[in-house]
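Run folding on both entries below.
>entry_1
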Amino acid sequence: MTSIYDQHLDRNPANFVALSPVSFVERSAEVFGDLPAVVHGARRYSWAQVRDRSARLAAALRAQGVGRGSTVSVMLPNTPEMVEAHYAVPALNAVLNTLNTRLDAPLLAWQMAHCEASVLITDREFAATIGPALEALRSTHGRSIVVIDVDDSEYTGPGARLGTLEYETLLAAHDPLPQLEGPADEWDAIAVSYTSGTTGDPKGVVTHHRGAYLNAVCNAATWTMPQFPIYLWTLPMFHCNGWCFPWTVAMQGGTHVCLRRVDAAAILEAMRTHGVNHYCAAPIVHSLIYNAPEALRAGISQQVRGMVAGAAPPAAMIEGMARIGFDITHVYGLTEVYGPASVAVKRPAWAGETLSEQTRLNGRQGVRYVLQEGLTVRHPETLAEVPADGQTMGEIMFRGNIVMKGYLKNPAATAKAFDGGWFHTGDLAVLEPDRYAKIKDRSKDVIISGGENISSIEVEDALYRHPAVVACAVVARPDPKWGETPVAYVELKPGATVTAAELVAHCKGLLAGYKVPREIRFEEIPKTSTGKIQKFQLRERAKSSSAIE
């Protein structure tokens, strides 16, 4: 039924423009064109220059036939070219596919074939992997691709050019597009990102311009990020498009401080030299910072604010960052919700709590982002919401505009993920009385021993409280008597020593007896490039090898 408000009040170019984060770049170039936008070694670009370079890249890609529905893959570290790709590709209404720089050649070839990429922009550092990937793309998948080589002035290591086009030469050969426009329809795909780190079953997560725009805004609102932040790229931009922060920094007219390599010395030096005040990282990267020698932190006088996600952060990490004066905000999400989509909002009253209680409160997954329509904990089959009692477990589910379009070429997985009108995360959690969600475990990581459920996260948290432990992971090991028992994989801090018996005794002081690891294995723990521990590999180890004590 129509009303008077439906008559002669139509959308038109003056009152409706599709939401796209590309618009943030145009605004910052227009308003803050003279201000710094990118710092990378000796290279410096203003917002006017970044906009110009991005528009030149867009023009060059258009000349290669890139347009709506085309896919452009990129194999790049955190460099200016990666920033520019996040602006140029969406401006053509094309789809950006950021490749994980730690993947092997067959998987890279499979991903580029699956998303039907027509162009690859690649840094020569990765030639040893990309070369075989391109060959597999041709021989196994029957696809050819235009290759654009990036020869970063800050990289002096080995690696050959693989294509016929060179990035800087290509930019110089094209006039910039008059405007970075974005899509006609905000529901159009902006990126396809593959989930490959923790399940062994890659799925192409397709996200849209509307969601990227809204989540970029949410990042700033959630963090109360001021205008002109100085943001350090410790988080790989290939991971969930850098949690949408390439666009958040553009929105705020901030400065991208690029970092090719992530280690404590490089991070702290960048913070000191450039006055960095914001960064994002997985828990293990934050741990590198607070475990670094105090001398490396000397001279950092500004308030540094970090955002942590990627795994349930150990209490020891949150406490450690608080002790060195870094302000940490805990967010939670997945690739399917553009990275973080919920936050442990810090209430004013928390400041009066003990450090231990603040750590507990801040360690929760929290509440939905302000522009995400729903976050709840529900029974995975009945979809009934669990009571907010802090005890009843269910599955975290999201609903709203900051949720993917679906999985590329995988309608069955898409339908399963959206069953009942909610996106199912697979993370098991409780709702606490204040309605903050608290993850207990991934559904596949719960250990069932003698009929009792053991949260691997709870056991890991106990291990992290030992001063010698820098990284750990707990998985189930088959047991003829109990069905499953917990086994812990542990990495120690440099120079630290501790025995398996000592760690077991430490855990006994913090956990119920049945939750204490039956075995401790001092081994290197496999991780993704974002620092997430690959438990599926550890589960295989636990099934096939004996304990090392």
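>entry_2
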Amino acid sequence: MGICFKNFSFQYDNLKNPTLKHINLGIGTGEKVLIAGPSGSGKSTLAHCLNGLIPHAYKGKMSGELLLDGEPLYGKSLEAISKKVGTILQDADGQFIALSVGEDVAFAFENDSMPVPHMHEKVEEILKNFSMEAFSEQSPQNLSGGQKQKVAMAGVMAMKTDILLFDEPLANLDPMSGQLAMDTIDALHKGTDKTIIVVEHRIEDVLSHHFDRVVLVSKGEIVFNGTPDEVLRSGVLEENGLREPLYIEVLKNCEIDLKEESTLTDISTLTKYKDKVMQVLGDLKPTQEKDEHEVLLECKNLQFAYDKERGNILKDISFNVYKGEFLAILGNNGAGKSTLLKALTGFCKLDQGEVRYEGQDITKWSIRKRADVIGYVMQNPNHMITKYMIYDEVAFGLRNFGYAEEEVKVRVTEALEKCGLAPYKKWPVASLSYGQKKRVTIASILALKPKVIVLDEPTAGQDHKNYTEFMNFLMTLKEEGITVIMITHDIQLALEYADRAIVLSSGQILADDTIYHVLSQKEVMETANLKDTSISTLARLYGVEDESTFLKQVIQKGREH
């Protein structure tokens, strides 16, 4: 039985063209399926059709059939659908219904009239699976983005639904937490007969976990439906703006033909290509130490606590930021990364320490004054967006600062073009995907032309094609002398673009070095919940002694392609 789409199409009321076109797809009971696709492809719309948000929350025209266990899904109430399909939303804030983490996870148990002592045991057990038991009494709204995602997942895990739908489950999680989340999904699938559907574009992070099938959506249509090994052999991912696993890229960049390989999802089967890879890379020349230039920002002995009971989030942090560099801030969920950026931009008032810009103490500057030199893009775009139309949102800051409308038009147009949003300038923001909304918020900051751009998870929710275009744009800003500071959980992204990385854990700096040296320090990686890239895995399989240099050579080889 399961799920069945028959010649199904859907068009939002505010759009001229269908978002989904002639979908024919069956998902059997107990299957584990990955639905992937570039940003704006329609994959999230497909998910919304399954969980009832379409048509209950998002209105539009539908044709064809959508059946669940042989019965039409439409016509059922949202409550009835939610008893069949449990959903972990990409935007965790939209999912919380209780005042504390424990109460939120307990909601399903309360509905089942579970005895209170048993309920407490079950809630603690589920929270332990996500290393969140210490936060049981806290409000979900006080958590970091990644911690919120864990709580949302824990809440749905408690529901007795036949189908579990995960919409971009890795978007806000640090790498090891993402690994844990996927392990939990694996265990749930193996231990039950539940149908698991994961909507995600981070291919490498999910394909290392067993999936029965991969369904690839592009421009509202299904362009591939097959096994994970088939999708890696086909080259269809790259053709549709998605990134292949890094180790696949490395082998292809070394001119190795993988079309005849039977098992590509298991990296350990590819050790036979060691000699060819090492030959192409040539002599490994040791990486240089970090290259320091003119100091732009100085952070000295920064300390901050939201309240005394929770203790310091930032603990005596000191570091410099250099003019024109690309700095990545890495670390586990709750390490203090977002708080650090808020301290730089003035959103958090420091308890101790100072921030200097070009030698001038700006610690007591207002948020408004700091915005002239430091632009801040928040992790969740919905926390920044205030206007209905995209053009007005990007123009909002300029208008607030009193720019003439002619200048506003020039700057907004330029920012929209640079962020790949020019075709959407007359669209309502609500029509965009999460990843597209992220680009709107980035465009609104770029329009102000700051000297330093601070970005919290700038590529979360964006496919490889879009984030590559955007990151290449950021690199042009870097070449113009603009400094970019970026929090990211995407180790691949940091490896490709960052000059330097600062690693935080428990509010303290663990490492401050070139990205290659940081990622080759096993102890730092483990402490900060950072997951090795498959390039590091390949290096160890090949017995490479100087992992840092191997990383650098592989990335440089990739840039040549």
